[in-house]
């Protein structure tokens, strides 16, 4: 248990260095192929008294909705105990056609206690350009509950967040979003983790299959011209590109999460010659309370006598020169021999970075 995190760190580095190349499909995306965010304002009805109180925006929305059904009513006469105002959000995937279904999320913007059992009325969902691309409607699924409000003593029981709900397949796409993939007879491949070396390796791998077709533009973009044999077959060409394997290059990094005691390092971390000292001083203070009682038939009262026991334990320290350790695996092995804990390992890595001996980016979470 003492060195489990350090052992995991070594195994992670070794496994990564032995990993095979990855497909371009897993390392990048195609420029122009993207999701789009939609949102809209809606009303949920049928909440059995758990809806908004007299929120002005809810009342006004109800009055406007009723006018669409030919019912004229003043907003002051609206009672909305069973209705809640919500914001409806969804992501529309690329190439989704008219009639396709989207999952939506509804979130209360008033003071409704819960959305459980409600029905979302027809709600248009707008894109960033103000156009309607989908319409949502249906019964909501909360995944939580709230009970006991207003009961004796004001006791309340709540599970999860009953003011946020989902509607699987609750929106219908009404308008397609055009995707422009091919520009000037070429496509752009965007690296998920931008890196100049990885971009050049990806371009070289593509050129081995399609000679002279690819060029690395920067750390993120690899431009690929569509060969004549794939004219009008963009989908087939992209599928062929995505199956090509590339060995990506990753910068040397050490990530430390002090909250969870996790250390993760890439396999190409290098360490200069250093000297490490390890030792600890532990002071333990124990407080006890003893009772002193008088003898039978004697006068007096029982007294409480506090006592303190103090002990000092200093573990034997060590000062060892850690040399000829080009990799993080060997460094952790040497520190493991010194008997360091995971918490002490974190402090040592930070000190190594301060001394300039850790040739990697140190990230603290």
Report the portion of residues in β strands.
Answer: 35-45%
Taking the alpha carbons of the first and last residues, their distance comes to 23 Å
- Given as residue ranges, the uncertain stretches (5+ residues, pLDDT < 50) are 1-19
**What's the domain count?**
3
* Computed CA radius of gyration, to the nearest angstrom: 33 Å
Sequence of secondary-structure elements:
HEHEEHEEEEEEEEHEEHEEEEEEEEHHEE
**Count of separate DSSP helical elements:** 7
Q: What's the story with the biggest beta sheet?
A: 6 strands, antiparallel, barrel
| Overall strand count | 23
**Broad structural category:** alpha+beta
Query: What's the overall average pLDDT, rounded?
Result: 79
Q: Main sheet: which strands, in order across? A: 3-4-5-10-7-6
- Proportion in helices: 10-25%
What's the oligomerization state?
Answer: single chain
Coarse shape: flat
